[in-house]
From TrEMBL:
Function of the molecule: DNA polymerase II participates in chromosomal DNA replication.
Name assigned to this protein: DNA polymerase epsilon catalytic subunit
Gene Ontology molecular function, alphabetical: 4 iron, 4 sulfur cluster binding; DNA binding; DNA-directed DNA polymerase activity; single-stranded DNA 3'-5' DNA exonuclease activity; zinc ion binding
Organism per entry: Rotaria magnacalcarata
EC number(s) stated in the UniProt entry for this protein: 2.7.7.7
Localization per Swiss-Prot or TrEMBL: Nucleus
Main location: nucleus
GO CC terms, sorted: epsilon DNA polymerase complex
Region (Disordered): 203-227
Required cofactor(s): [4Fe-4S] cluster
GO biological process, one term: DNA replication proofreading
Compositionally skewed regions (Polar residues) per UniProt: 208-227
Length: 244
């Protein structure tokens, strides 16, 4: 993300889960995930652009591309790039060059070449999920998205129906108990210098005078960064649950 920022590359905001999500009976969820399904890898191994790989081209597929070259160019230029095909002055030369390249692939289907490496980043796939070939349900499209797809057909096989099991971790405390802890935190102050957090009650601050209470490094709970508030709150909630 830092490199993208320095290169002026636009990237989406990092997805953040809801801070407070409860079970049906009012318990705070700390984590949730889905388990049970997996996807198949086409091929596994070490791939580098300077190590030749064997490719087996399907001639029928290449012939299909040649026969539909006009429709493919129209899709690429006018639909995807939003440009008029009439603006391309050398469209005939480009078309002929593509056909020759495709014909060469068709004539020599068994090939040994250095590959071009492309990294396709799939939504909701994290490194540990990739290693286990697991796919999270948030990456599954719905019927609305499929309705907008040009490849949507009654016999389309681009989706696999999978069985999912939801798994969540929640705290024993109820919503009311969490709210009491939050009210207690609102009556406390914390010494905060970016990392160090030390609890200090209003009574302690009043004994040391108003100067201590107004110290810039001493903040009330709602003045702390949101991430710090969540950390303190979850720790206090965990301590309460262990005692109760």
């Amino acid at each position: 993300m830092v490199q993208a920022y320095l290169a002026n590359v636009i990237y989406p905001n990092k997805h953040e889960d809801e801070q407070y999500k409860y079970t049906n009976d009012g318990h705070l969820l700390t984590t949730e995930t889905y388990v049970g399904a997996s996807v198949e890898a086409l091929e596994s191994g070490v791939f580098r652009s300077d190590i030749p790989c064997r490719f087996k081209i399907v001639p029928e597929t290449i012939q299909f591309l040649i026969d539909n070259i006009d429709r493919i160019l129209h899709q690429s230029i006018e639909v995807e790039e939003k440009l008029s095909i009439d603006l391309v002055e050398n469209i005939a030369e480009i078309k002929e060059d593509i056909i020759q390249r495709l014909q060469h692939l068709k004539n020599v289907p068994n090939r040994l070449e250095n590959p071009n490496i492309y990294h396709l980043d799939v939504g909701a796939m994290y490194p540990n999920i990739i290693l286990t070939n697991r796919l999270q349900p948030s990456a599954i499209v719905n019927s609305t998205i499929c309705a907008q797809c040009d490849l949507n057909r009654p016999n389309a096989r681009c989706q696999r129906k999978m069985d999912w099991i939801w798994r969540g971790t929640y705290v024993p405390a109820t919503r009311n108990e969490l709210q009491r802890i939050q009210l207690q935190l609102e009556n406390e102050r914390f010494s905060f210098n970016g990392q160090l957090i030390e609890k200090r009650s209003f009574a302690d601050s009043s004994k040391k005078g108003t100067n201590a209470a107004n110290n810039n490094s001493t903040l009330s709970f709602h003045e702390l960064p949101q991430e710090t508030q969540t950390t303190i709150e979850r720790k206090r909630l965990a301590d309460y649950c262990r005692k109760a």
